[in-house]
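Long-time lurker, first post. I've been practising inverse folding by hand and with some scripts of my own, and I keep getting stuck on stretches where the structure tokens seem ambiguous. Below is the full token string for one chain I'm working on. Before anyone asks, I'm not after the true native sequence, just a reasonable design that respects the backbone. If someone could post their per-position residues I'd love to compare against what I wrote down in my notebook.
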């Protein structure tokens, strides 16, 4: 309907110009841009970039995409870095191709890696496939399956919900999980439910593109993952205050 209206208006302008009754001659490039605007665009989002003072740990969750309304290329990375020990975990470093299959829902496939670094390093390279979209009641949902060269499969998911107190003061609730169908001991993943992370973060959008926040984060390991951490002298569960920024370009 909008295109028909624009075309009709431009047709009227052209007719007036042809009859020398209208002094303005529309710019052909402007007409082209109005009727067919650029179909490719992109975004970079630092969904999390935060510091946990109790654990002396930096955490990040970054995504970027480029493409159109139906087809896009994605880059996503998430991880933690310990300032105390100098090592950390690169939970995922992924490249995807996505396709819109329904309003607000994309199916995606790509490749990625999971890496542990520090005194000893190990990694896992995998193929990934999943869905991402907006579930009922505005839950942002991201669900994935990952399979490596040995045929070992893991599943992970992330759900976020923004609760608006005002147009700028927003409380974000966030939940994540990691599960595996096999033991992948090199990167500390074991059969069954490995971990659950829950968080609440209150942000204030100074600008829409930039928002400092503070909140709490709770992580709990389960099963053999919890046993392995306890054997190394660490806790299977952590709870702490986090401070950070959320921004997009």
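-- Answer (accepted) --
I ran through it position by position. Result:
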């Amino acid at each position: 309907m909008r295109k028909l209206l624009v075309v009709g208006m431009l047709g009227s302008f052209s007719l007036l110009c042809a009859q020398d009754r209208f002094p303005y001659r529309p710019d052909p490039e402007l007409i082209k841009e109005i009727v067919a605007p650029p179909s490719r665009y992109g975004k970079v989002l630092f969904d999390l970039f935060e510091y946990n003072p109790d654990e002396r740990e930096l955490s990040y969750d970054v995504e970027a995409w480029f493409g159109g309304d139906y087809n896009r290329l994605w880059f996503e990375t998430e991880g933690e870095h310990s300032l105390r020990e100098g090592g950390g975990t690169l939970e995922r470093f992924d490249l995807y191709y996505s396709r819109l299959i329904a309003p607000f829902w994309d199916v995606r496939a790509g490749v990625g890696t999971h890496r542990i670094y520090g005194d000893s390093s190990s990694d896992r390279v995998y193929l990934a496939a999943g869905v991402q979209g907006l579930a009922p009641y505005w839950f942002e949902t991201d669900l994935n399956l990952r399979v490596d060269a040995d045929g070992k499969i893991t599943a992970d998911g992330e759900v976020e919900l923004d609760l608006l107190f005002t147009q700028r003061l927003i409380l974000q609730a966030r939940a994540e999980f990691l599960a595996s169908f096999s033991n992948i001991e090199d990167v500390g993943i074991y059969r069954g439910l490995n971990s659950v992370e829950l968080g609440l973060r209150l942000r204030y959008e100074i600008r829409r593109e930039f928002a400092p926040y503070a909140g709490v984060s709770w992580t709990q390991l389960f099963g053999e993952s919890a046993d392995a951490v306890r054997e190394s002298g660490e806790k299977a569960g952590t709870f702490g205050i986090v401070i950070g920024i959320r921004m997009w370009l």
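A couple of notes from the structure itself: The mean pLDDT is 89. The chain is about 15% helix and 60% strand. Happy to go over any region you disagree with.
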